[in-house]
Amino acid sequence: MKRVTIVGGGLAGLTLGLQLRQRGVPVLLHEAGTYPRHRVCGEYLSGRAISIIESLGLRPGLDDLGAVESSDVLLSLGSSVLSRRTLPRPALCLSRYEFDRFLVQELTKAGGDIQTGHRVPAQPAEGTVLATGRQPSATQNGWRWFGLKAHARNVDLEAGLEMHLSTRGYIGLCRIEKNQVNVCGLFRARSPVSDLATQWKDWLGGDPDSLLRQRICHADWDESSFSSIAALSLSPQRASAQAGLRIGDALTMIPPVTGNGMSMAIEGADRAARPLVDWSSNKLGWDSVAETVASCLDSAFAPRLRHARWLQHAMFDPMARSVVWNLSRMFPDFPSLLFRLTR
Ligand SMILES: Cc1cc2nc3c(=O)[nH]c(=O)nc-3n(C[C@H](O)[C@H](O)[C@H](O)COP(=O)(O)OP(=O)(O)OC[C@H]3O[C@@H](n4cnc5c(N)ncnc54)[C@H](O)[C@@H]3O)c2cc1C
Q1: Which of 41, 145, 172, 229 has the fewest Cβ atoms within 10 angstroms?
Q2: What is the pLDDT of residue 197?
Q3: CATH number of 4-41+95-134+237-341: 3.40.50.970, 3.50.50.60, 3.40.50.150, 3.40.50.300?
Q4: DSSP E strands: which ranges in the chain?
Q5: What is the pTM of this model?
Q6: Which of 41, 181, 312 has most ligand 1 atoms within 8 Å of CB, for mutation?
Q7: Which residue positions in the chain have pLDDT lower than 70?
Q8: Residue with CA at minimum distance from ligand 1 atom 21
């Protein structure tokens, strides 16, 4: 069988590598960084990916690492709180530090060749899958988007996931392994923010008098888990309009408020695996593989990207945000509807 080269060892690349190895395809994966490492992520895995994880036989390993099931959400806007709501399907919360490390172990055990510490050219080519993460964009409509995250102990939550809306962005809190809480936010600014390395607790701490501020006033931060990411591009992209076979954020990013980016990375890997096996065993040409995967991913992701786009807009536009807030207050099932529409 022919070898598949994967550029990028985040969730998309690692899951694809595993899927291919489980079907006997030789895999070479290049990762610019090293493992284990902390990544900016809400660490809230929800949606279809959970059944893919289960079908790959990975669920017991994640449970052993202490992954926390989360089935309810609490929304807060400043000091106002919407009562806890149960979501249609439980999510799984585990740090990316452990999750990615676990996938690397599994892929290595399955015979995948993982080369770390070198950035290789991310060029479309026959037999190469681009799983290189976000396509950086310095600004979008004049805004600079950036994400921050850190783990903390001594933070009490009233729901598995708490989403706090602040004047500068939104911050999600969820319980993860070892009694830690992941605190992760998406923010925007008109001009470059240069002091994040020293000011991140302030950004993640929310507005004065907010519920978020109360939640984390006694937080015991794990400083080594702090990470940041900038130049985020949140406009939806279509696979069929881009060169090369792309999965995960390398194809498109869904706004983090949905908590569905990791699922899309894993679903993309899942949907690309079968055509790649056919290419590897000379049953399908590369152009057909790339076209099949692109049209499959475009039709699978278009509806949720559309809904996510206006939801993201609503998070930052005061009028739209108050509409979403009031609908959620009047109709208890409204958050569940948003959850379903973005999956
Ligand atoms: C603030 C924020 C909060 C989020 N919260 C959630 C959440 O709660 N739930 C959720 O499901 N999703 C969330 N997401 C989204 C989620 O983190 C991503 O969708 C997911 O990590 C994408 O995985 P990926 O494998 O495509 O990319 P990545 O995880 O970014 O991996 C890409 C890898 O490719 C490597 N790479 C890049 N270029 C090269 C090269 N040339 N050579 C070699 N290696 C290369 C990089 O080093 C990187 O390790 C969030 C995102 C942000 C920004």
Answers
A1: 229
A2: 86
A3: 3.50.50.60
A4: 4-7, 27-31, 44-45, 68-77, 80-93, 113-116, 128-130, 144-153, 161-165, 169-176, 180-189, 220-230, 245-246
A5: 0.96
A6: 41
A7: none
A8: 262
